[in-house]
Please model this.
Amino acid sequence: MTTRICLIRHGETDWNAAGRIQGQTDVPLNEVGRSQALALAASVPLFVFNAIYSSDLIRALDSAQGVAERCGLEVISLPLLRERHFGIFQGLTAEEGLQRYPEAHACYKARDVEYDFVSGESMLCFNDRVHEAVACLTQLHPGQTIAAVSHGGVLEMVYRKATGRPLQTPRDFVIPNCALNWFSFDEHGWHLEAWDDHRHLAKVMLESVE
Model:
């Protein structure tokens, strides 16, 4: 039985715009992000969702709220959908990380899947958590279509699994804020149906930074 998930990255924040690594820091949407969330909600009548899930971080919850209201549903908070915890890198730009923690920055650039930024989460552990989140959603909603608002890192892990891309390879795809990304999950595996549908954001500034 196939479960379809429309996976959505939250709207823009000031830290996104500044290139700061947010991780699990609870940063709110900025003005552009709120506009993106409104445009996202306006596109919802085109689809029928059986449930709306969100990371429990405020930037995702606020992005999901309008979608849920348009569907007559409540947002279901799922902490498994949180962004990766970047430990000592949270709040820093990549350049600041290089200056303060050169060894950590080297691991970051090399995409060392076992490195956890001292107090954070390794890519391997993060990937396992994302897989657990997907398993939870598909078990709860067999044969249904749901939406889940999450974070760039979560979308990256799902995209890599669905397209067979190894974790270690550089990211060669964009993950825009509030775009629609469709996946299906069945007994044969994870499948990418559509990526980066941002037609509803035509009148909103589109920026995609780390």
